[in-house]
């Protein structure tokens, strides 16, 4: 059950130190969300990039998180009702007291 | 109403003379706006704001969950934006400005009516990891995600408490930065970050449950 001897498996790496000694997984996981959001300060970018390049479990987790965000983004598209643009322009015409450019 | 809206939009912007905003005058918004005629201001608004209407509608759908209400919110938002367009400083963040108006418009139109208490998320949500659960099944993790449908994503978002839902939507779908979301929602950045973190966890949990319904992930403790 214990993965203590298997080199580089997820069980070893998550929450502990990487076999490669490239940095601390818990530190990378703590920063991962802000990193993926593009909100991590410049000074912290190097260490997480180095870590993700060296630690497969953390990199795999990061890829999953990115894919998940992409799924949410792609699945959330709405089809605008066909009359909405025209209705808005009509309202703007009334507000500007002007026939408007598309009249 | 026989021709498609797509071509109408294109025609309108083609026939409209482009208003060039003189960079030298951008420093002083007052000067710029007093020099625009009403017609020029309308044209500039057309060029800058109307292309955002489809995205605003998408956001309004996530806010209201109802096409009619979403259209009302967008119409009201664009009308308010037009009224205060002279106050918008050219060269600053137009999208954040528009979404701020959308947000306040939604709140004034609908949230007051509902009088819903601000919902919270369970503490235990912090420990949830979709990634760890997806790895326990037979399918590759990405396959699990691919089975999730549009409707499931929308329902999972809809089930989040409002403040969490909006933060997640603005970040993950609209791509706004923390600082922009803080401005749009009028909350401190720290609040945005914690809502995002916990909102995403709750969203993942809901999506994980849909993945289980889709048969691509094992139910907890149900592995053969």
Features:
heterodimer, A: mainly alpha, Arc Repressor Mutant, subunit A, 60% helix, elongated, disordered N terminus, B: 224 residues, mainly alpha, Rna Polymerase Sigma Factor, Chain: A
Overview of this structure, please?
Chain A has 103 residues and is mainly alpha-helical. Chain A contains five helices and no strands. Chain A has helices at 10-13, 25-36, 42-54, 56-75, 84-96. Chain B has 224 residues and is mainly alpha-helical. Chain B folds into two domains: 5-114, Rna Polymerase Sigma Factor, Chain: A (Orthogonal Bundle), CATH 1.10.1740; 123-213, Winged helix-like DNA-binding domain superfamily/Winged helix DNA-binding domain (Arc Repressor Mutant, subunit A), CATH 1.10.10.10. Chain B has helices spanning 5-15, 23-26, 29-35, 38-48, 53-64, 67-83, 94-114, 130-134, 141-146, 150-158, 162-173, 178-185, 189-213. The longest helix of chain B has 25 residues, at 189-213. Chain B starts with a helix and ends in an 11-residue tail after the last helix. The model of chain B is unreliable at 1-16 (pLDDT under 50).
Q: What is this structure's SSE topology?
A:
The complex is a heterodimer of chains A (103) and B (224).
Chain A: H1 10-13, H2 25-36, H3 42-54, H4 56-75, H5 84-96
Helix pairs in contact in A: 2-3, 2-4, 3-4
Chain B: H1 5-15, H2 23-26, H3 29-35, H4 38-48, H5 53-64, H6 67-83, H7 94-114, H8 130-134, H9 141-146, H10 150-158, H11 162-173, H12 178-185, H13 189-213
Helix pairs in contact in B: 5-6, 5-7, 6-7, 7-12, 10-13, 11-13, 12-13
Element pattern of chain A in H and E:
HHHHH
Give the helix proportion of chain A (percent range).
55-70%
Q: Sheet with the most strands of chain B?
A: none
CATH architecture group name of chain A = Orthogonal Bundle
* Global morphology of chain A: elongated
What's the CATH topology label of chain A?
Arc Repressor Mutant, subunit A
The radius of gyration computed from the alpha-carbon positions of chain A, rounded to a whole number of angstroms, is 24 Å
Proportion of beta-strand residues of chain A: under 5%
Number of strands of chain A: 0
